[in-house]
Amino acid sequence: MKADFELYEGNAPYIFVSYCHKDKDSVLPVIESMAENGYRIWYDKGIHPGSEWPEIVAEHLEQCAVFLIFISDHYMQSQNCIREIHFAVARNKKMISVMMEPVRLTPGVEMQLCVSQALHYDQYSDKKMFYKDLYRAEALGGCKTEIPSEAPAKQAESRNPETDRKKKQEAIRAPGKAPEKKKKKKGRLILALAAAAVVVAAGAAAGWHAWNTVEIAGETYARNVSGIHIEEKTVTMDLMAQLENLDAVSSLEFTNCTFEEGTLERLKNIETLSRLELTACSGITDCGFLKNLYKLFILEMNGCNLEDEAMDIGSSLPNLHYLNLSGNPGLTDVAWLEYMPELRSLELDDNSIEDMSPAASLENLTVLSLENNRITEISEPLKALRLEYLNLSGNQIRELSGLDNLTVLIEFYLADNHYRQSEGEQESESAPEQIPVCIEESSNTLEKADLSGNGFTREDLNRMLSDCGKLTYLDIGESSKVESLDFLRNCTMLETLYADSCGLTAWNGPQKMEKLKDLDLSGNELESLEDFPVLSAENRVKLDLRNNRLTSLEGLDTGIAYDKLILYDNSLSAEDTDRTLEGMQGNVLGITYEEGLRPESLQDFDSCYIAQVPDNRKVAWEDALGYKCRFEIFPHQ
């Protein structure tokens, strides 16, 4: 389906429509109706004439007045769509979200859209009411061209060239009549009045512009702008005074700025502020200014060198729902969380936190991220029973009993905690007996899990994962003596599976994995691909089998085009490799040279990374494969 209207190209305020092209049949009727009602609209038609197209999209997004999003499952799966949201947020665009169907937002997207107006298209039985509510959105008002009503027939006739011509002929033929001479005096008077009107209008426009705009950090903003982004400036009292002149600013973002003493205290004068983001800023030695920001909904202070002493807030922030204080190694204590009882999302990555028990009392959390800290135990039960996203990777956790009451996790990350072994050792006498029960308890909801770098045994993994039928992403790399993947037989929805360096000797996993796109089995002890799964021809699969003990590729699915097929450091014969790979198609092939291997058998791959080719064979291989041939090892990704 194609929308039957011209995309707006001009200087007036317009709407940028962000949608997934797979949803065009449901989205285009909506925006076509908007265009018929006079709204100026630009959207990506999906016709990409060349590499300059992303620049064209970005340029139109940069210049739009309103960012209108049509969200669906397809939208959430599109990286290009998500990038458009990030870009719009970075440019402080006014946003309206239309939920086309029930869909689970990722924590990051939910955080970025939480202050936008949202309509649930799927919940309107009467679509007329949907359009009525949509057109009520204040942000859209400036993007509409008033459609004139039909002119009287007499007026329309006067604009008809044929009618005008006939009238002139009749006037010429009429006896005793001659065309009237122009009255020059009257014409001059009209011109003079028109010129005066132009001068008056110009003066009024200049006055309006001066009254309705504000100069801030060298940039001109409308006085009613909703968001400001300031980069690489020294924030002075004068600059803060300029910000206070804004009528309705709700979002302030500072990047690489230095705050002079006392300037942050002035934020209390911006009563409409609900979102504050400080990234890589300096001069923040006291966060007491936060106690006066009662309406604050989102707070981010990333990489600002915050110390524990700076976090003496001293007052509750009852409306704060999203907090991100990542990248502040001076933070070791989180006792100040008591002032933020309504938090929904808490991100404290890359700090030096040792005790996270104060977070246990936060009942409303759905997102908790504590990656790369110094946490050693979580024993106090978390009260956030609806926690969906939990990231504890990069700590030294040996006790996880505080997570036992979590039953609806969707994403759980525990990578590189060396839970079953001390770092650098095969096994540890102090290894905990208990496994994370929360995985087993969340088997009906869990979609993504990273358990790599913990030395979990096959028995551990079987208990945790055997019933997790909704998993789409799983990393169990560096587990201990797993031997086979039979515990994953119910995990047929997997799209990504990393099982490298697990001591695998056989597959024995699901026999059909139609959604699989990325499979890493490198660094194991596989001798054959017997019972290897059937993959979907619709996906270009990444398969890494390097550093195993394979003597044959029999069992490899040859009916698909691989995105990457990596076979280094096995014991494959040239004859078997030739027979298997000949006619196979793909993007990247990584293989170790064997005497007798023919370059012609690899010619249907776009790039061939061939290791250990003798110098006296390189010319022949280059002549056979041309630009496709590379004498290097494709990196482990």
Automatic annotation (TrEMBL):
Keywords carried by this UniProt record: Leucine-rich repeat, Membrane, Repeat, Transmembrane, Transmembrane helix
Compositionally biased spans, kind Basic and acidic residues: 156-171
SMART domains: LRR_SD22, LRR_TYP, TIR
Residue ranges of domain TIR in the record: 11-138
Domain of life: Bacteria
UniProt region (Disordered), positions on chain: 146-183
Record field: transmembrane: 189-211
Any GO BP: signal transduction
InterPro entries to which the protein is assigned, alphabetical: Leu-rich_rpt (IPR001611), Leu-rich_rpt_typical-subtyp (IPR003591), LRR_dom_sf (IPR032675), SDS22/Internalin_LRR (IPR050836), TIR_dom (IPR000157), Toll_tir_struct_dom_sf (IPR035897)
Protein name: Leucine-rich repeat domain-containing protein
Originating species: Candidatus Eubacterium avistercoris
